[in-house]
Fold this sequence. Notes:
The protein has helices at about 15-25, 35-45, 50, 65-70, 90-100, 140-150, 165-175, 195-200, 235; strands at about 55-60, 80-85, 105-110, 125-130, 150-160, 205-215, 215-220, 220-225, 245-250. By secondary structure, the protein is an alpha/beta fold. Helix 6 links the parallel strand 4 (about 125-130) and strand 5 (about 150-160). The radius of gyration is 18 Å and the shape is globular.
Amino acid sequence: MIGPxxxxxxxxxxAGVRAAYDAxxxxxxxxxxxxxxxxxxxxxxxxxxxxxxxxxxLEIACGRGGFACRLARQPRSPAxxxxxxxxxxxxxxxxxxxxxxxxxxxxxEVADIxxxxxxxxxxxxxxxCETIEHVPSPQRALEELARVLKRGGHLFITTPNYFGPLGxxxxxxxxxxxxxxxxxxxxxxxxxxxLTIAWIKQAGLRVSVVDAVGHYLPFPRRPPIELxxxxxPRALMRWVGLHSLVVAEKP
Length: 251
């Protein structure tokens, strides 16, 4: 099997990160509905004939498996569907949920997005939701996703976009000595949609779709207030939406 270059070693997660993610996932339920804003964005732009039916699909950083199970339940599902995550605890929950609900057709793997144990040009579709902001080298992760993608295949990637009010709040919290942790995850990068797009292009992919939703008014010590009306006009407001999606094709 053709693996990734040895240079990925220098991008390995710090010691203890895997244990931290195992502990984090062990406290959370399987997202059965898979209805988070990023899941809705991916679903809105997936083309079943082009991206799923009869295709080889990888969801990397699948978490506790809700979205992968949703894809497997489609009437005409992928020919091959791999759900992979860095956390063995998350994969165990996904596998258990699938078995308990008689969901077949998913291969579960423990994997590092920066060092995938699959040959180049393996997958027609690669999906990664809310992942690259939580790894030591987002650029290396994107290079790996581009490597395992077939020519003409599509990458669907979502990240937070702190180009709006929550980005300002995050800087405010840091100045007050309260680092923004994104619900307790050990690695949390400050991501911006233009930067995500630039990294995807550097990985050799061609961007075809840019979308984002989620406009919030943050307040100290209370949940932010969402302002759905600000999602439109989408062509303008997508650049400051918190939940961003980029779809890219491998030429």
